[in-house]
Amino acid sequence: MLELGYDPSSFWEQRIVWGDHDAFQHVNNVRYVRFLESSRIEWMVSLGKEIGGASRADDMLAGRGISLILKTISIDYKRPVVYPDMLLIAHKPHPGPLVSTSDVHKTEFGQCRFPKTHFHLMDAIYSYAQRRIVTECDEVLVWYDYEKLAKCDPGEEARAALQRRMFLTQEPNAYE
């Protein structure tokens, strides 16, 4: 996942339990949404801590001040997963829209301008048992001001933190 540019602060391991199965003998599709949610929340906590410490992360989780909300989610199930297995879930913010994980390496990726009120989050779910990515997802997250009940610009510090996570090693200024 590191080689594909995923944010290491987002890595989340999810153990598959027997109860994750459905009548079709594989992990139910709805379970993936839960796995992605748990992982995304942990990633959001790490982003909040980077922006303003533990109290900022707590505020983001409680919906106080400016936080993030999920606008859309699109999931591409590539292979079924069965018990027993352990999944590694990872996220990478990007300018959107992308078709697959391999798109993050395109040269024009670093030359995009990003909206100030929202961003895309590319997710990948890797199966340890199958030794491959079994699911990819693209989400749109919106910066949301819970006092005004409206989308918003989160400010320079939040945009800078997000941009560092988008490019990990590069430092282009896409928010202009």
From TrEMBL:
Alphabetical keyword list: Isomerase
InterPro entries: 4-hydroxybenzoyl-CoA_TE, HotDog_dom_sf
SUPFAM superfamilies in the record: Thioesterase/thiol ester dehydrase-isomerase
Gene3D superfamilies: Hotdog Thioesterase
Signal peptide: none
Pfam families per record: 4HBT_2
Listed GO MF terms: fatty acyl-CoA hydrolase activity; isomerase activity
Protein's name according to its UniProt entry: Thioesterase/thiol ester dehydrase-isomerase
Organism in which the protein naturally occurs: Laetiporus sulphureus 93-53
